[in-house]
Amino acid sequence: MRDDPVVVDLVLRAREGDAAAWDAIVERYAPLLWGVCARYGVTGSDADDVAGGVWLRLVERLDTLHEPAALPGWLVRTTQRQCLQLLRARKRQVPVDAPEPGARGKEDDGVDGEILVAERRHALRTAFAELPVRCRELLSMLFAEPPASYAEISAALGVPVGAVGPNRGRCLDRLRRSRALAALELA
């Protein structure tokens, strides 16, 4: 586990009742909770119930978390337990590929992988938000589903068609140089 100073800071501030820190924790780790729920086949309102239970437990137990940097792992384990409780209560079978809480071995890579994916997504969202508006608009159009053509982008942004590609390259370079991504060694 790495000692992520951002996570440590958020946990310490949340312990002191900082609402912005709580919001940042939820925003950063909600996708992780949804990912764990999905792995257990828990979706929709059931996933909402599980996530709500996890956040409630965090509020109740944040002061007992000895290592603030351990928050992501605590969230994963707590979400796993909540999912299993829900599945048992509804007399459902747990998916074969779902690990039992505390299981060792190959499944640990999955939990670490989920944490890493959640952190990467958060870093990418942070880096994207730091881009100039023009770059965000251009990249959003390029990565929309379906992606906009260069002609559509040219018309929408008022740039020559021949400038779309070079501008895209510059925007992606700015994104790659972001501190948020560099912190995860994604650049």
Q: Report the mean per-residue pLDDT as an integer.
A: 82
End-to-end Cα distance, whole Å, is 21 Å
User: What's the CATH topology label of the largest domain?
Assistant: Rna Polymerase Sigma Factor, Chain: A
Order of helices and strands: HHHHHHHHH
Shape: elongated
What does this structure look like?
- It comes from Microbispora hainanensis.
- InterPro entries: RNA_pol_sigma-70-like, RNA_pol_sigma-70_dom, RNA_pol_sigma70_r2, RNA_pol_sigma_r2, RNA_pol_sigma_r3/r4-like, WH-like_DNA-bd_sf.
- This is Sigma-70 family RNA polymerase sigma factor.
- One of its GO terms (molecular function) is sigma factor activity.
- Helix content is 71%, strand content 0%.
- With 187 residues, the chain is mainly α.
- The longest helix has 25 residues.
- The radius of gyration is 20 Å and the shape is elongated.
How would you concisely characterize the structure shown here?
The protein is built from nine helices and no strands. The protein is elongated.
Observed structural traits:
sigma factor activity; mainly alpha; DNA-binding; Rna Polymerase Sigma Factor, Chain: A; transcription; 187 residues; 2 domains
Topology readout:
Elements: H1 5-15, H2 19-39, H3 44-61, H4 71-89, H5 106-130, H6 133-142, H7 150-157, H8 161-176, H9 179-182
